[in-house]
Amino acid sequence: MPFDVKDILRQLDTGFAHEGGAPPWWQESWEDPEGFATALAEAHAGRGVPPPKSRPGQQYDFFHDLVVRHVALERPAFRTHARIQGWQNVGFRTLHDLAARRASEWADQGVEPGAKVCLVYGVGQELLVSLLATLRLGGCFTLLPPLGPRAMATRLEALAPDFIAAEPHQLPILRGHEKLLLKSRGGGAPGFTSHTYKPGDVVGLLFSPLVDPPHTPVPLTAEDAWKGALGDGMLTFGLAPGDVLAAPDFPVLQHLPALLFATLFRGATYLHLEMADLELNPAPLLESPLRALGVTPRLRDLLLKHRIGAMRNVLHWFRNPEEPYDAQAWRAWVKQCGLQAVPSSNILIDAAAGGAVLVSSRGVNDPHADVHTDVFPVPGRAWALKDPNQSGQGAPTDVGVFTLLPDKGRPPGHVLLARIRSRYHYGGTLGFRHDGRTYPAKEVTAALEGLPFLMGTSVVPVSTGGLASHSRFVLLAFTGHEPAPSEGEQEIKRRIEMLLGGDFLPDRIEFFPLFPHRKKGAVDDAWCASQFFTGALHRKATDPMFQALTALRGRLLESAGNPGEDGPSSTS
Question: Which residues are CB-contacts of 466 (< 8 A; sequence separation ≥ 6)?
Fold first, then answer.
């Protein structure tokens, strides 16, 4: 199908009414993804920078397309701000030289096409240089921000990397994998061309938090990664050379490397700001002209708290539709920051699928609809609505599970889309999730085993209800016949943060001086949830007679020296 890319870009810049559904070209792109990608690539090649070396459906040279062809640009590729150092910039030429030298060093240590390289860095220059060095060599990268040692061990075991790149002070969390650590001294001399991937080659293995369990490595193909960067850079964010994109507080494992790829592909600048720094001083967010700003509820509330006024540096802001739909708070923020006439959109990004998968128009059509639930499947991707019963058949009604096609080898979809005439609305998720992300309940309860005052734990998801409906995860902590110690909650949080990381903390902790029901030695989660929701745990914990029985049971178990397994007739 012919696609007029100039007219497409004009429509996206001016916006379109959602009432009529997606424009004809958008719907046609779902039917002809290959033709649409080719049209975008041809239009992209004539935007004032050297053309990409890659060819859609044939070959992909990420290092060339992301960095090499932009080395003449004097603007930074990556920018960050720290409390002490202030602003720090890394240009495309510097990025090219550093990554090429690191690739030369790594090649001497055995990194070759197809090698699995795990990158253990926070977001910053080191991550970017190592990522690009891996792409130059044709490796398969994995992003793994530093977590607690137990969480790291679980993920490294699932990944089984060939090499690990990390800073020296990260060695304690890499115990048992020290021999895989790559050495980078900055003395390499680049002298070879970058690698070209085939469309089906796996360029990354990503730990997507949208997958259950979230420590499952998900393959990212070269085709998905390159087309995602092309579409997001041109259409989703409308970036041009020199533009700036920022998304503070957006979860790294869900959104990177997609946001980095989209930004670098267009010769734009990726701005990274830590929330801890913004909480002390949000001023750096106002100092750069932002072509696109990602806003989370936490960043929104922070800016409301600091009474930030007109944000004249923002040309487009976006939010994740899977986060709580608190329209009142969003509109209060829009009004306070003077963003009523600034385009806004819903954008759901899954880096393991290559980038954005659901988007809405970024034009301003109705000032009262700046926060909405409208989304469309991203242009240029084939998709289907599948039956929520997870049978694999098509949805028989206008509500179904959004599924990218081909779906073979992909993790199952989790987003419910509701079709109302020609419009699509984000309708929630299959099962309970934390803003769309899977909560690693089994990892949390396993990490708590061995705490002396706990007889067992279980995680129960709870829906909050209302317009801002989302899930909260409650940790049920059973303390047996002894009450919880005064420092019990702090000790649980400390154990989780030490072994796993702060992102693993539950929303709430409830203590019960009871013994949990067990099956085959493991806590029976179904029993725990049923007892919690019916109020039985609360009644038993406050009933004198039942507490006496619990104390008797505790003495018997102490005598036996083994908690054993509960039978069907267990009363607790």
Answer: none
How far apart (Å, rounded) are the C-alpha atoms in residues 61 and 225?
A: 11
**Those residues with Cβ within 8 angstroms of residue 203's Cβ, 6 or more apart along the chain or in another chain:** 60, 62, 135, 140, 141, 197, 220, 221, 222, 225
Predicted confidence (pLDDT) per residue in 401-433, tens digit:
999 999 998 999 999 999 988 889 998 898 899
Residues 6+ apart with CB under 8 A from 33: 227, 380, 381, 382
Amino acid at 83: R
Q: Give the span between the Cα atoms of 398 and 10, in whole angstroms.
A: 31
Q: Which residues in 113-228 belong to E strands, given as ranges? A: 116-120, 140-143, 163-166, 202-207, 217-221
Helix (H, G, I), strand (E, B) or coil at 340: coil
Distance CA 115, CA 277 (A): 36
Question: Looking at residues 360-388, what average pLDDT do you find?
Answer: 82
pTM of the full structure? 0.93
- The first and second tokens of residue 70, run together, are 């932009």
Read off the pLDDT of residues 202-220 as tens digits, 9 standing for 90 and up: 999 999 999 999 999 999 9
Nearest Cα residue to 157 out of 113, 210, 216, 205: 216
Angle (CA) 217-121-300 rounded to 5° is: 90
Phi and psi at residue 25, to the nearest 5°: -60, -35
Token digits for 308? Answer: 């930030």
User: Token pair for residue 34?
Assistant: 């290959």
Give the model's pLDDT for residue 572: 46
Structural element, H or E, at residue 355 = strand 355-359
pLDDT tier for residue 390 given thresholds of 50, 70 and 90 = confident
Which structure tokens are listed for 248?
Answer: 């503070």
